[in-house]
Amino acid sequence: MGDGIQKKYALILNGDTEARHLGNVDRAVQALRAEGAYDISVASPKAPGAGVERHEAPSREGLEKLLAGMKSKMDDDDLLVVYVTGHGDGGSKGEGCVSLPAECLSLGSLAADLKALSYGKRILVMDNCFSGSGFNFFADAKTTVVSQGSPGEKVSCQLFSPFFWSDQVPDADQDGKISVQERFQHAVLKGQSESLLQFYSPEPISLSGDVAARPFKTADGKPMEVADGKGLKAQLARLKAGQLALVAFSADWCLPCKKYQPHFEKLAKQDGGRVLMIHAEGRNGTEEDWAQWGVTSFPTVAFVDWNGKVVKVADIMDPMASLAVAAVHSPEEQAKILIRKLTSPDAAERYRATLGLRAMGALAAPSVPALAQALKDADADVRFGAVAALAEIGPAAAPAVPQLLPLLESKDYALVLRAVHALGKVGPKAKDAVPALLKLFRGDLEALAKKSVEGKGLNAILNGHMVFDKVFELAGEIAFALARIAPGQAELLQALVETASDPKQDYVRRRQA
């Protein structure tokens, strides 16, 4: 529990004796002191010149001592700043690690250590090589994260940190506060680093702990309106380093887009200018321009960052849930964030994770084992979402075929249909599914379809038509799946002939005719 007072704490970790890294520590201490009364703990080979509350050697034991001292003082009203500098490596698990004299401390291990601390807000800055590989461990609703590089990338801290911690950072929005985002922008502009820097912030915040101005706040709170590619490019040109646009792509003929627009306008007002909200509605054919951003269906909602990277959101009703994913440059890291969310105790968050992986398509291949496990989730929406995501991953989802097969025996028509579709998208690698698919094709599809329309409140005639359509839909999906998995399969052709000549399968025969 908090005491209602925001106290400020900082932890600085540096395992190297090079002058540039020791200088980074000194600059960070000076910048923090200038922002208020900080309690600063440092693990570094040399104590900072300005003096700090606690200093330990850069070792596991030293870090544990510092964390224990901080834990005894901090509560969930406080601000925590963590700065990691020095050398880094890829680590044995590819998650990045901080080079200390006796070991390379994994960023995953550091993230677990930091969880022991209580805080209300957290700012994490990492400028060591491979620090981008651990981005997904830290990005959450309380934490602003800066990493100089992307996953697996080596960086040059001298092209970033001296400018980030500088006392010459301009107050670009003239709100009287130097936000972390403004520091990031200054470092990118002055340092000219060629690294793919990553920035994530749930809210504009400064090192003083104050909430900074929202750079895209408008008088009416409505999103910007554009009608073609030229207009969209002009709006996106407003983005500075660390800033994002959220774009709702639509077309003037799209009815679902019209229904979605009021919700997007509501989201814009709720966001209050944190990101640049844009409603991009193509008119008289200009929606073809949206293909430049990889958009060909509507409505599509996507984040676009200052480098032009496009990340489609998982859930258009809650696009901000994809904010952390949008900040990551590597698809592998995006997948890691979503895989982690598949284990959330919140079913809605697990479902959104399946939507995000589905949107990634084949790039979400590393998530196949986690999605296979999600097929057994207690929540029906999560199970459906996992099947749909595996379908979009395609052939790389082959390891999940054993988990997909039991779904063919479900009494849930929609789940069976999705499972058949997913197996078909896997293609020839799903050859073990052929006997089960043939069994399903020859089975009582009508009974499955009837169960799906029970309780719809329709009359007998309409119910009959719905059953008729559903049976044909499922039979067709099975046939297409078998054709993709085993093209020219003789048993499939025999089954089709049997079905077409069976008087009990009149509904199928008439549709085939």
Give an account of the 3D structure.
The protein is α/β, with parallel strands linked by helices. It folds into 3 domains: about 10-200, Rossmann fold (3-Layer(aba) Sandwich), CATH 3.40.50; about 225-310, Glutaredoxin, CATH 3.40.30; about 330-510, Leucine-rich Repeat Variant. The protein contains 20 helices and 15 strands. The chain has helices at about 20-35, 60-70, 105-115, 135-140, 160-165, 180-190, 230-235, 255-270, 325, 330-340, 345-360, 370-375, 380-395, 400-405, 415-425, 435-440, 445-455, 460-485, 490-500, 505-510; strands at about 10-15, 40-45, 55, 80-85, 90, 95-100, 105, 120-125, 145, 200, 225, 245-250, 275-280, 300-305, 310. The strands form 3 sheets. It has a 7-stranded mixed β-sheet, sandwiched between helices. α1 (about 20-35) links the parallel β1 (about 10-15) and β2 (about 40-45). α10 packs antiparallel against α11, α13 runs parallel beside α15 and α17 packs across α18. The protein is globular, with a radius of gyration of 27 Å. It starts with 7 loop residues before the first strand and ends with a helix. Mean pLDDT is about 90; it is low at about 505-513.
Attribute tags:
about 525 residues; Leucine-rich Repeat Variant; 20 helices; disordered C terminus; Rossmann fold; alpha/beta; Glutaredoxin; seven-stranded mixed beta sheet
Cα-atom radius of gyration: 27 Å
Note the main sheet.
7 strands, mixed
CATH architecture of the largest domain: 3-Layer(aba) Sandwich
Query: Helical element count?
Result: 20
Number of strands: 15
The share of residues in helices is: 40-55%
CATH class of the largest domain: Alpha Beta
- Give the uncertain stretches in residue-range form: 507-513
Kindly state the mean pLDDT as a whole number?
89
- Helix-and-strand structural type: alpha/beta
Q: Estimate nothing, just give the exact number of structural domains.
A: 3
